[in-house]
Amino acid sequence: MLVSYKWLSEYLDLSKISAKELSDQMSLTGIEVEGVEVPEEGLKKIVVGEVKECIPHPNSDHLSICQVDIGEEELSQIVCGAPNVKAGIKVIVALPGSRITGNQKIKKGKMRGEVSNGMICSLQELGYSDSVIPKAYSEGIYYMPNDAVNGDAVFSYLDMDDSIIELSITPNRADALSMRGVAYEVGAIYRQTPDFNDEVLKEDTNESAADYISVEVEDKKEVPAYQIRVIKGVKIAESPLWLQTRLMNEGIRPINNVVDVTNYILLLFGQPLHAFDYDKLDSKNILVRRGKLGEELVTLDGETRKISEENIVITNETVPVALAGVMGGADSEITEETTTVALESALFDSLAVRKTSKKFNLRSESSSRFEKGINHATIGEAGDVAAAMIAKLAGGTVVSGRSIGSELTVKEVVVSVTVPRINEYLGTSLDEAAVSEIFDTLGFTYTLDQGKYTVTVPPRRWDITIEADLIEEVARIYGYDNLPSTLPKGETVAGSLTSRQLLVRKIKSLLEGTGASEAISYALTTEKKSRQFMMRESLTTSLQWPMSEERSVLRMNLISGLLDDVAYNVARKNTNVALYEIGRIFYQDNDPKKDLPYEENHLGIILTGNREVKDWETKETPVDFYTIKGMLEVLFDSVGLADEISYEATKANPEMHPGRTALIKLNETIIGFVGQVHPTVAKEYEVPETYVAELNLQAIVEAENDAFVYQQISKFPVVSRDIALLVDESVTSQELIGTISKHAGKFLQTVHLFDVYQGDNIAEGKKSMAYSLTFVNPEATLVDEEINQSMEKVEKALVEAFNVIIR
Predict the structure, then answer these.
(1) pTM, whole model, 2 decimals?
(2) Distance from first CA to last CA of the chain, Å, rounded?
């Protein structure tokens, strides 16, 4: 909610209270202030000018040379490219040396050979958003009123010298979604009573609204209040400047004098209104009912909406003319030809409005207020003030009476509380005089009997229904900062991390120790990226109303997000990147009983560039498959899973290099993959040669890790034997080491691959692999006979299993 300090000052005396002080006090009493903005800040030397002469530029088909009166003795020549510039209008002029939005400085210069002493400005160039500028001026300059004085600063005319206070309204304080509600709140803070100078309604008693239109409401529970006033003889035109600027500062686009009044009342009362062109309704009967299948309505935004039974609609007894509480229909909108206005003021069921708004993705100021709640006591009053203003600004006449379809009787809410109860809750020592003063300043009527307050809550504060609500009001106005501070009582319990949290922290520390930095990527991505690097089949989980196509579905891998991070770095010349991410991915099974996706915690790692940078004693060394595999082995070894992990070459993942990718298995269960990103995929992401790994971290957490067993270093000597094998190149080192470990006996301590060779003197399709085997007996010295027996068993097993040749 945007609150104009100037507008608020019309209802309260704020002459001694600055906008900054006001915002601070509102934050202290429970309504958070997001910030205070003065639109004119950063702008200077921008004045009113009058175009006295306007001729086409001789060297351009779209520029004009204007002679402008800026309040000085001589006219100032300005070259302007706006299509709506002409002689006889008053405009906004940025003088030489001025600053417009974006801190852009305007200088005297030449345009196509003609001198230009400044700029004739549009509202955009003063910082106004395209969404709030009147459509008539959205493609050109803005016309100032004829009574604006040439040479005067424009800021006061446009209310740019106002302070706009942005409030963050919580759902329980929807009463503050109106200027009147804010005025009561500020009045309570500063012990003032707001004085509202609403337009007085004058009716033409010669005719009645019932003569023009009748209203029927099908379900009065869904539409507890619905009434229409009729204003005849209106002339549609632009609203006066004060109303336009007030709406623009509140973030609403001015349309015309009738529609602008409905938006003004929306801000003033928090009561949504809708104005119909009476003649375009083609009926004297209004029926409010549920929609029917097959019905359609073209709304004010030009979109065709297919209506269903969950939508409440306003009809001309035959076809829908508006979506109740959300948006009107294009066929009955107010246009320049409108002469008679049917003004709707109503209350609709908040859930029905919410469903309609969500279905059509139509979030509006009106729907928001119906959803959060409005003041039931001012539904009719808001319509009366609006009708009076339309009659004044559009020159019309208000027909007497209202055509009523349903009417709401507001019931009083009475809540009781005692002073001891208040003090018990707040830890204060307030007396009856202090509590009475707070209720008085809030505008709550009450009776006091033997220390018990019976409070009648005004309808504008529909959030107050129980004793605790009253106590909260006392605390707010008394001042949260005035409440006494006390230390908590009771025993404290030391907190601790779960085993999962400890393991995740350990993994993070290990990866950072290997040189990787943590990354946090978006969980939302494109559908294409979400389906890359998948570890299992899954449906896509899509958002119903995504903010953009790039963030429309939930991810099913971490690698695509990390590739985006690498691409971002590489594009900025940071070519040596090592990142990891721990986060959730989202699988959706084809099960109609499950609405929510299954979340699984994953670990992703990505490397590109060099692992060793070039310096005076070191050659640069690029990362490769074994760099990232080594990081994983450090991780598995540290968490006690090294003996249960195996790697298996795979070509199944189309996003990975078919010759440099392996599945990672925990025992026989696949828990991830590691390898090089396929060159075509790397090209799509605009990254160089890149290596990645993704693991199901949840499976690692749930695995039973082997406990670390510390053994004393043997005092007996260690014996090493080397063995060189000629094998088929398809045989993996993992298979060979597994066979060696299985048959070498209990004294084998380690197996280390120290050489791999292919080339001269090695047959095609073969490779030579040399291993060093280390043996130790912790209880005695090993003799050659024992070692020889172990080596013979190993050689025999290797020959039988892989047909190796011992070299």
Answers:
(1) 0.70
(2) 84
